[in-house]
Amino acid sequence: MTLYPGQVMKGQNPMPLTPPPNSNGDSNDSWDENKGFCESVGPTKKPQTEPVRRARKVEGGIFFPKPENAVTIAVSSRVLFRTEKEQKVFEEKGVEEYLNYQVQHENEPLAPGPAFPFVKALEAVNSQLRELYPESEELFDIVLVTYNHAHVGVRLINTINHHNLFIERFCMTGGSSPIGYLKAWHTNLYLSADAEKVQEALAEGIAAATMFMPEKQVEVSETQLRVAFDGDAVLFSDESERIFKAHGLDKFFEHERENEHTLLEHGPLKGFLEALGKLQKKFYAKGHRLNCPIRTYLVTARSAASSGIRALKTLRAWGLETDEALFLAGAPKGPMLEKIRPHIYFDDQMFHIEGAAERGTIAAHVPYGIAQMYSHRKSTNSAK
Amino acid sequence: MTLYPGQVMKGQNPMPLTPPPNSNGDSNDSWDENKGFCESVGPTKKPQTPKPENAVTIAVSSRVLFRTEKEQKVFEEKGVEEYLNYQVQHENEPLAPGPAFPFVKALEAVNSQLRELYPESEELFDIVLVTYNHAHVGVRLINTINHHNLFIERFCMTGGSSPIGYLKAWHTNLYLSADAEKVQEALAEGIAAATMFMPEKQVEVSETQLRVAFDGDAVLFSDESERIFKAHGLDKFFEHERENEHTLLEHGPLKGFLEALGKLQKKFYAKGHRLNCPIRTYLVTARSAASSGIRALKTLRAWGLETDEALFLAGAPKGPMLEKIRPHIYFDDQMFHIEGAAERGTIAAHVPYGIAQMYSHRKSTNSAK
Predict the structure, then answer these.
(1) Per-domain residue ranges for chain A?
(2) In Å, how far is B16's CA from the nearest CA of chain A?
(3) pTM
(4) How many Å lie between the alpha carbon of B249 and the closest alpha carbon of chain A?
(5) Which stretches does the entry tag as region Disordered (chain B) (predicted)?
């Protein structure tokens, strides 16, 4: 794990004798700096029984942006970390056993879940943003939203610190629905393992998607955040999808051609692409267009010549652009995504999500639109 | 206003010719049953009031239970005698509900549910009206209480002297007043207390579930961390918290009240009501979860307390969160947060304790801890 110069670990507290494996080794500097303060604790050679962590340094940068200024990503504990064992205890033995289990294991950090690389990449982008715009609050802000009770909070905090994540905002709802709080957090994107909660959020107008653990994990970039989007029923509304499903491909092409100059309605993730675009422009303004730390991709089953214009004109009219656009005309998305290696890929059809996951792509399902009425095994990978 | 089957209005006294608007009309039954005994008083079947040491006693002043701005004005502009005259003249006009009114109503709703599950128990909420007022004003207060169908049978009308001495005698678990000085006196005596304010607008709160929200530092916990933050800044605060992760925080003024609520909650859990418990508690703190959350959570756990929900805001504004929670009361030590909450209609109560009181509320910034 690379640490960037501007990242929060600068000037670490030198006290722990077994520094975490990825410390920056800037110890001389920080030792002198902090020596006076550390006198009382002293350079004792105390044996450490549990992993020691440094305290974060947060002054001299914006680390706690106001929710309305930041791009707020709400993640649930079940997608940020792997909690299959714990889920099993809960389902088989009930709440009390589950809470006991969590408390007993609270010093054992959980393993990373499907949303983990995405969150790490968000932090990488944040440190680059802070370098360029030290006073700005336009950063990614990650909030942990969970049904869990406060008891489980200790384990989650230990896990977050173990993995050196910077997640300071928590909503532990102890069983009630977290959806009400999402609006209060000005949430731009909500990621959960629970399709029902995701649907509730979508109904409230909040971009949301269900995440799944891929069967294998491919490496993703640690320096560049890559987000891939399906077109219809994700960035755009599902209107075209409806026509295709009701009347077939030819009617769909006709309809698209007739309405070439009519913009498509927006879909549930348009707002999130917009938020990414706003941050991208900040990098462009400082000359980072070619190697921008945020890269977006459109990966659509649409056919370019027959139905591509409407999609592109709509994006342009919204003032949005994706860095790359792949019109597949029905070709499988799996191999393309494998090459892109996004930190997250949004699609409305489970068929595509599963295809992506088979190849190790981190995919998130947006349960929106007409495609939800079709079982995922029945819908075919067809051209539009 | 919904009346629950177990509530106090069963078997109303049929004697008054103008019965209170919400009488249950069970007149025949109770008339026969109690005729002999109740000749002079009438067959009211109000429940017994619990012994103060067994109950969770909430002392409220008349100025937070009801709206008394007009009356206050008369008192301030024209003096005691005019004020007393005014009150006596208007004694048949009930006062309007004040900021503590929904809270007290919710306490009664919880009581009726407790009585259903534990008919013999005295572990209930007990509400005592504590007021500087003279006995003259008592009639108006009683009329108002009856008009609103509240069950407040214990009064302390001190006619001008300090009520603080009585609070201990009542085994008061929580004292709510409009007067910050009295609240500070109570805190100095070790009694949980807070100053209440009328919110600018009123949002609806639940009539079936009591919701109480607490700030962390200087409310549930002592103000020790607040002091370090204010003296040395955020980084030093985080360092201090991490070094002392395994040391419990000292308790704050409202720890005892959370404890009392927890005790009643366990009674509901014991009867299988954990998921839809009629009492729900919330921790709404400016603390940062990963950097300073562990100490707070471990401290609560060591005290055997838990809140149902915990929101670590890391400096994000509390107003929008509280608006979603809709508590019947929210306790915070900083006026900045109280005002932010009140702007959105949240009923907020100020706990004038700790280092934050030395900073004018307009100067303190909404910052992460």
Answers:
(1) 65-211, 225-381
(2) 46
(3) 0.82
(4) 16
(5) 1-53
